[in-house]
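Per your request, structure below.
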């Protein structure tokens, strides 16, 4: 095992984290934190009163959103803009993001940036551009389903698995790594990822969506890990879910077969309310759109 790097080096591994790793994952996790079966971070008694206070987004808060050009990402941008926040709205092809361009034209607090979350160099370049600038909420929204037809056992499309994992799992953790100092330097200090109830192993009833479900279960684990990692730095990590929502994500004919399907403006508002609920004490939790806590 190599020596830990200094805090100002890129790896960001400090002595305590290095020692925890050396002591073994099980011992480190048990010593630092326990997570119960209900998808909720446990609540050790050593939280300061301010760590239990919810930190809502308000005018002037700065939010970085991935996949902000359409669907839920666009809805996040639209509704956060109404709160007079400052938004870094990222998307893969800004030239084609007409609705987002129009939104930005009406809201000077919105800046559009080109970002593909599978392009790790692109992420680093954007982080370099914003170095030293606080970001209150890093919102990992971009995600893909992979197509139900590619995830049928017996006809599994294996290359699609890697695409889904790249967007839904690698992208979010790389964003958190690249922008961690921006979040640490902010007032709200939140790293939020849009997960899905499909990532809940406890809730699986029917076999389907092998790739997508695996990706959301995996990103849940990444973020629980990260919540532990960042706790000492007072950074809050959270998972939110929108429920089945009428975006391009659920194409026809599936969409009309879901009578309870939700509208994007409602789903985004529900997630924004849950993003506000996060505190250091409940960091690492898995909040469903209806304010309940999903089981892992
Ligand atoms: N809709 C639902 O029912 C539902 C339910 C549970 C969870 N979710 C989650 O909610 C999040 C948003 O979904 P949505 O419903 O808004 O889906 P959507 O309408 O299909 O939008 C997906 C967004 O992700 C972006 N994206 C895809 N690959 C990307 C990449 N490599 N780099 C950057 N951006 C990328 C898309 O950009 P392009 O336009 O460039 O493709 C688009 O902006 C996802 O994480 C999804 O898993 C959705």
């Amino acid at each position: 095992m190599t020596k830990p790097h200094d805090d100002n080096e890129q790896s960001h591994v400090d002595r305590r984290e290095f020692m925890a790793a050396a002591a073994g994952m099980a011992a480190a996790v048990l010593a630092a934190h326990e997570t119960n079966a209900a998808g909720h971070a446990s609540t050790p008694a050593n939280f300061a009163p301010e760590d239990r206070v919810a930190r809502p987004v308000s005018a002037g808060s700065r939010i970085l959103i991935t996949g902000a050009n359409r669907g839920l990402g666009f809805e996040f941008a639209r509704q956060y803009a109404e709160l007079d926040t400052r938004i870094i709205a990222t998307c893969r092809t800004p030239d084609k993001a007409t609705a987002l361009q129009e939104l930005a034209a009406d809201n000077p607090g919105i800046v559009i940036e080109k970002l593909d979350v599978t392009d790790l160099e692109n992420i680093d370049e954007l982080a370099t551009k914003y170095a030293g600038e606080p970001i209150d909420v890093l919102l990992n929204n971009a995600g893909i389903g992979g197509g139900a037809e590619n995830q049928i056992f017996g006809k599994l499309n294996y290359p699609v698995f890697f695409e889904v994992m790249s967007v839904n799992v690698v992208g979010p953790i790389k964003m958190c790594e690249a922008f961690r100092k921006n979040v640490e330097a902010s007032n709200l200090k939140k790293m939020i990822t849009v997960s899905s109830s499909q990532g809940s192993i406890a809730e699986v009833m029917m076999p389907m969506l092998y790739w997508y479900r695996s990706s959301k279960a995996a990103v849940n684990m990444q973020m629980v890990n990260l919540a532990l990692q960042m706790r000492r730095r007072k950074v809050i990590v959270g998972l939110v879910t929108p429920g089945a929502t009428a975006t391009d994500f659920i194409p026809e004919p599936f969409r009309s077969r879901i009578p309870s399907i939700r509208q994007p403006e409602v789903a985004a508002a529900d997630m924004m309310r849950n993003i506000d609920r996060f505190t250091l004490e409940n960091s690492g939790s898995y909040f469903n759109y209806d304010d309940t806590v999903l089981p892992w």
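Residues 66-67, 69-73, 91-93, 116-118, 141-144, 167, 194, 196, 241-242, 244-245, 247-250 surround NAP (CB under 6 Å).

Regards,
D.
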